[in-house]
Design brief:
single chain, 574 residues, alpha+beta, six-stranded antiparallel β-sheet, 16 helices, 37% helix, transferase
């Protein structure tokens, strides 16, 4: 224990120095890579695999395996980076210009202070328990503490084999890496909780991928993304140990304690309070007292964070594509960007994942229910480890439903510029949008141009929406005219001016979203060593709610080529 104390003290000293400028003032000093304040709480406080080889195997009684990146590189190149993520780490942006930067962030050269490992976890995939999964191509470098004592975990995705790689090579291609990098940053700018991305490096080596699972693999450029999050713990991190019987149930508790200590510290300091005791509404009038069981309070918070994030997905038309329990962050972050897609034409049954096509389990409309199913698996895990009783587990699920509806209704109300939720009006709108396959993003952006003037003649009502209501016949025009009339009627009683409403609507309805075809254009250019389009796209997506004159092409509807395989829809391995 003494060595752990020394480590914590030395980190605290470093932080104190870091928060002071060179002149002893409180101005923040930007750091070189060698000056980052590493802290390895995950490695220090949780059980480790005694082995460090990459032979695929069941890793028992351990939360991680220490593991060095093993990817091969040849003149690696820095493709794109995020200055706002560097700011979180207090990393000097000049560091991106270092000649050795691509070597350090491909994993080919070790970063001073890092203690790399791969995390062990399991999960339900498409509703079926899959057993051990783990970080098959991601290697965490460690946690960096900034001067505010915020903890940021850095992880290289595509850095080589681990014991969790099964039969795969542990590598990633440029195509999927660009998508993950851009979507991480785009989602953050949309105000949606997400893992972030610091940088993307091309390895200079090719990687073989069978993109369509049709027996025709091809060589693609290899790449590595440095992902950043407060933690990459998933529902499956706890599920795996609970699934292994009595011997490993204590690990579930240890891991839960670790998570609460570092990421939910307010739950460790709870005192008895009426405000977090709740009636279950059952006949025996029993009460769930969250202050008497921190694990119950934690389960409720995980459920609510998950519900809140999924409500935001629905608001912007984001479809994750692979909502397996190993892809569910315990912090409520959007995590693991694979075959994701934003809605173009509004289609509730849209799935961007070819693997999901038969049952469309993970389609856009199902996401809220799948979130609840996943929370139920998480609650069951904590119950199995005797951290929750059945009432507490059920209560967490109940709170998921309440939180999702509260947040979703608030988002949709604001998207329409209404002052109160109107279920019928929103329901009719979504029905009309589905019938006419209206572009989700562009429609809501145009909707803010409607004036709350009930005297507008019927034949002029649809003019502000003309660009979104394409190729509709007379019958559909009448349906839309009827809806717009009732909408204007509702607006005219709100007492909010047109300008005020437009500004409010434009602050929640983005003009720019990361459509799959935009990603593909950037990928095509980058595969020819032109990184300009990736960087331009990042800039546009960092300001999704702004008009950005001159950038209108990034708000256009998808061209015909966007519907070819591998652009609009992708496989899990993408």
């Amino acid at each position: 224990m003494e060595s752990a104390a020394v480590t914590v003290d030395s980190v605290a000293d470093k932080l104190k120095k870091q928060s002071l400028g060179n002149d002893g003032s409180n101005s923040k000093r930007m750091l070189k890579l060698e000056e980052l304040n590493w802290d390895h709480s995950f490695v220090r406080e949780l059980p480790a695999d005694p082995r460090t080889d990459t032979i695929p195997r069941e890793v028992l009684h351990a939360c991680y395996t220490k593991m060095l990146p093993s990817v091969e590189v040849e003149n690696p190149q820095l493709v794109v980076w995020s200055e706002s993520v560097a700011e979180l780490l207090e990393l000097d942006p000049k560091e991106f210009e270092r000649p050795d930067f691509p070597l350090l962030f491909s994993g080919a050269s070790p970063l001073v202070g890092a203690v790399p490992y791969a995390q062990n976890y399991g999960g339900h995939q498409f509703g079926m328990w899959a057993g051990q999964l783990g970080d098959g191509r991601a290697i965490t470098l460690g946690e960096v503490l900034n001067s505010k004592s915020e903890r940021w975990e850095l992880q290289l995705k595509g850095a080589g084999k681990t014991p969790y790689s099964r039969f795969a090579d542990g590598l990633a291609v440029l195509r999927s890496s660009i998508r993950e990098f851009l979507c991480s940053e785009a989602m953050h700018s949309l105000g949606i909780p997400t893992t972030r991305a610091l940088c993307l490096v091309m390895t200079g080596k090719d990687v073989s991928r069978d993109m369509f699972y049709d027996g025709n693999p091809k060589d693609e450029p290899g790449a590595i993304v440095c992902r950043v999050a407060e933690s990459f713990l998933r529902f499956g991190s706890y599920q795996l140990h609970a699934s292994r019987g009595k011997e490993d149930l204590e690990i579930v508790r240890t891991l839960a304690d670790y998570t609460i200590r570092h990421h939910f510290p307010h739950l460790d300091n709870m005192s008895k309070s009426e405000s977090i005791s709740f009636s279950t509404g059952e006949e025996d009038d029993s009460v769930v007292d969250l202050t008497s069981n921190k694990y119950a309070a934690w389960a409720v918070e995980v459920a609510e964070r998950t519900a809140s994030t999924i409500a935001r997905w629905q608001g912007v038309g984001f479809t994750h594509g692979v909502m397996n329990t190993d892809n569910m962050s315990v912090l409520g972050l959007t995590i693991d960007y694979g075959p994701f897609g934003f809605l173009d034409a509004f289609d509730p049954s849209f799935t961007p994942n070819t693997t999901d096509l038969p049952g469309r389990r993970y389609c856009f409309a199902n996401q809220p229910d799948i979130g609840l199913w996943n929370v139920a698996q998480f609650a069951t895990t904590l119950s199995t480890a005797q951290l929750l009783n059945d009432k507490e587990a059920n209560y967490a699920m109940e709170r998921y439903g309440i939180k999702f509806m509260d947040d979703y209704q608030a988002i949709m109300t604001k998207k329409l510029g209404l002052v109160k939720y109107n279920k019928h009006m929103i329901g009719e709108l979504l029905k009309n949008m589905a019938v006419d396959k209206v572009d989700y993003t562009n429609f809501f952006r145009l909707l803010s141009n409607i004036k709350a003037d009930p005297t507008i003649p019927d034949n002029q009502l649809l003019i502000p929406l003309k660009a979104a209501l394409l190729d509709i016949g007379q019958e559909r025009k009448e349906a839309w005219t009827s809806w717009v009339k009732s909408y204007i009627q509702e607006l005219s009683t709100s007492g909010v001016s047109d300008d005020e409403r437009k500004a409010s609507m434009n602050s929640i309805n983005p003009k720019y979203i990361l459509r799959n075809y935009l990603c593909q254009s950037a990928i095509d250019a980058a595969e020819q060593d032109d990184f300009g389009e990736v960087r331009r796209l990042l800039k546009v997506m960092q300001r999704p709610f702004d008009e950005q004159p001159g950038m209108e092409k990034y708000a256009r509807l998808p061209p015909a080529w966007a519907y070819r395989p591998g652009v609009g829809m992708l496989s899990c391995s993408s």
